[in-house]
Fold these 4 entries.
Entry 1:
Amino acid sequence: MDEPGEHKLILKKNGTSISYELRWYKDWASWNLISEDNFETILSGTATMPK
C-alpha cells in the first residue's frame, strides 16, 4: 500500500471535562499492520463540557 498511515482521535469523558488525544500511526493500526502501542501523540489536552 502507498497510503501514509492513519490518525486516531481518542476522547474520554472525565466528569464535566473531556480529554482528547490525536495519535499518528506510520501504518494501519486498525488493520493490524502496526502495533496499537506504536504511535506518536500529535495533540492532547482537556476541554470543559458546557452545562
Entry 2:
Amino acid sequence: MAVPAVIGHAFISSASVTMVKEFAGPEAALDPLHMGISGRPGWLVMGAFVAFLALAGRVRPAADGTP
C-alpha cells in the first residue's frame, strides 16, 4: 500500500519549506542547502532512518524480485 509514501511526500513537499521560513530569524539568510529536510541536515536524518530500517530488517527485496 502506497498511502504512507504519499503522506510522507506531501509533508516533505509542503511542511519542510514552510517550517524553515517559520523558525528562521527575521534577519537570517535562508540557505536551503544548510537547513530544512531537503538540505544537508535532512539528508543525514533520512539516511540514519533508512539505516535503522535496514538494520531492523524492514528494508528487503520483494519476494517476486520486483523493486
Entry 3:
Amino acid sequence: MKVLGIETSCDETGVAVYDTEAGLLCHRLHSQIELHAEYGGVVPELASRDHIRRLPLLIRQTLAEAALEVGDIDGVAYTAGPGLAGALLVGASVAESLGLAAGIPVLPVHHLEGHLLSPLLSADPPAFPFIALLVSGGHTQLMRVAGVGDYTLLGESLDDAAGEAFDKTAKLLGLGYPGGPQLARLAEQGQAGRFRLPRPMLHSPDLDFSFSGLKTAVLNVVSSEAWQPGDAADLAADFQLAVVEVLCAKALSAMKAEGLRTLVVAGGVGANRALRQQLNAATAKRGWRVHYPEPELCTDNGAMIAFAGGLRFAAGERPPQMPALRVRPRWPLMELKPPLGA
C-alpha cells in the first residue's frame, strides 16, 4: 500500500508518502517557528490557520516529488491526537475529504505512536521487543514495546516532562522560541560543574520522572543576587547534564528490569547530542544496542504518521465505514491496541 501521512498536531505541517514494500518515498515539512517566535510560544489559532494555508500545497508537492497522483494512493493516515484541537481538525478534515473523494480508507494515528515507531524507519531498525524512552514535548515515558500497539508503560513523568523542563528553563535564561534547542546549543558553550543542581528521582525505586524541581532550582539560581547573565552557558550545561543523567539512569534500569538489550529513543529530545553521547557510551559498555530516528525525523513529521498508519494498514486494520472527524486532543498512548484485524 502507498499511504499518505498528514501531521498537524501543533506547529509543524508534515506530509509524507510511505510504501509498505518500497519504504518512505518522500516527505516534506513546514515549520511555524518564525510565526510563533514573536509570541514566545505556540498560538493555537495561528497554528491552525497556517496548517490550512500550507497543507494543500505540501500535499501537491509531496505527491509530485514521489511521482504520484492522488489516485495512486491506497490509504491516508493522519494525526488524530494528542495535540491542539484546532490544528488536529485541519489534518483530519483534509484526510477524510481525500479519502471520501478518492474512495480509499483513512486511519486516525496516535501522534506518540508515530514517534515511538519512527526509529524503525532508519537504515538499522530495531527488532521487537525493546525498551522505548519517549521524550517528546509534554511526554517523558519508558515503555516495553512488544509490537505495534502492544505497549506496557513502565514509568512516566509525574509533573514536567523533560522537553517542558528544557523549554521553561530556556525562558528563565532569556532564550527565545523554541527554547529547548536553543538551551542545548547554549549548553555546548558552557562548562558543567559550577552549579549544584538536583537529579530528581534519580535513586527512586521506580521508573518515574520528575523535572519540576530541577526547573525550580534553576529559578533559584537566576533569582539570586549573585547571578550574572554571563554564567548562563555554564548553568545551561549543568541543567542539561542533570536531565541527561536522570534519563540515562532510568532507561538503563528499565532495560535491566525487563531483561532486554535493545533501547529505542524517540521524540524531539532524542535529538539532543549530550543525551545520545551518554546513552551510546552506557549501552556500548554493557553490550546493548540503542536506536534513534534519523535526525530529521525526531521532530513532528508526516513520515512517522504515514509509517505508523502503513504498519496498521498492512496488518489488516481498517477504519469504520462512515467517515468522521476523529480527533482526540488528549489521548493516552496506553489506550492503543494491536492493529484491528492482525
Entry 4:
Amino acid sequence: MKISIFGLGYVGAVSLACLARDGHQVIGVDIDQTKLDLIKAGTTPVVEEGMVDLMASVAASGRVSVTTDVGQALLDSDISLICVGTPSASNGSQDQGAVLRLAADLGKAIARKAAPHVLVFRSTLAPGTVEETLIPILERESGKRDGEGFFTCFQPEFLREGSSIRDYDKPPFTVIGANHDYPIERLRELFGHLPCKFLRTSVRSAEMMKYACNNFHALKITFANETARLCEALGVNPFEVMDLVCQDTQLNISPAYLKPGFAFGGSCLPKDLRATTYLAKTHDVELPMLGGIMQSNRQHIDRAIAKVLESGCRKVGMLGLSFKTGTDDLRESPLVILAEQLLGKGVQLSIFDPDVQLSRLLGANRRFIETQLPHIGDLLKPDLDAIIAEADMLIVGVSNPAIFDALATHARPEQKVLDLVNLPKGMALRAQVEGLCW
C-alpha cells in the first residue's frame, strides 16, 4: 500500500519505519528539512529504542521517500496518516494551528485527485474537531464531499516514548472512528494483522477516548504516588501495598466501576475516603487528588437535583433509595441525599424501593435514615404502578427488572424520566428519558 505520513515526530517517524518494514511504500512529509535529511540518510530523527537499526534498514530498502511537498505526497499515496503536533496553548487549550494549516493544504491536493483518498487523523484532537472543523476545511478547499471525494477518520495512537516500536507491534487495541465503511476496510488491510482487537466507533468517541486513556493513566500514577506519600508517613512499604492492590484483577485492575452512572455511597467508600484524608492531615501529607473525590461525587448529586428542578415537575416518583441495587443499606446513599434536597425544595416525592422495608431496617442503617429522612414512612409507597401513574417525573435509581417492566408498560409520553442507572439497551419507553452522562 502507498502511504503518506504528515509530521515526523515520535508517532510519525516510528509509524513510517514500521510500515516500511512491513513492506509498504511510505512517503514522509515534514516542514523540518533536518528531519527529512536524517531519514534520507538512514538516521532516526527521534531517540527511541530500536529505531537506529530499523531506520537504517528501511532507508536502504528503497521503500521510504521524504518531501516537504504536501500536495505531491497526497497525490502519490492511497492513505495519509496525519501525525502533526497539537501542543498546549498558553491558556491550556489545544494549539491546532499546524493541523488546520495542513488540512487546508490537503484539501487543495484532494481537489486535483480523481480517486477517493483516505485521511487518517492520528494527532490528539479535542472531540468534535474532525467533524466540526477539519472536514469543513477539507470540503471547502477540495470542492468535494466527505464520504464521496475523500474519506476522513480518526485513529488514536497508543505509542509510548521509549517502547514505541513494541507498542506499534503489540498495541492494546486498534480503534477507528469513522462515518463510512471504506476507510475501515482500508485500515483493516493496514493494521488488521496486529495481535489485538480491531474496534470501530464514532469519530467523536475515538477522539475522546484518547483523552480518557491518558487521563486515566495520569490518574493511576497520581493515585500510586499519593498512596506512597501516605505510606511513607505511616511507616508502610508502598511497593508492597500497591503490589497487593494489583493482585485483585476482579475489582481493582478490571472494568469494574468504570461505567458512567450515579454517585457512589454506602457504608465503606465515603467513610474510608474521609479516614484516609484525615490520616494524611494528621501527618502533614497533602493528597489533593484523593481529597477532591468526595467533592466531585457531590457535584454529581447536585447535577441530578438541578435536572429535576429545571424540569419544572413538582410531583416526582423516585424508584430506588438504597445506595446500591439489591441491598436495603441506606447509609450515605446518594439517593437519600437527593430525596432530602428535593423535599427541601418543595418537590412532592413518592418513593418505591423493592428492597427497602422500614420495619426491617436495623442498627446504624435505621438510625441514619431516621436522621436524614425522618418522614420516610410517609414517602415510601408499596404500589409501583401507582407512583408511575401519578408522577410528572420519574427518577430511576436502581437496576431492577420489575421496575424496568413497569416503566415499559406504564410510562406516559408526556412523562419525564431521569435515568441514573443506564437503562437496558433497546428498552423502549414512551417517556422522555434523560441521563446525567448523555
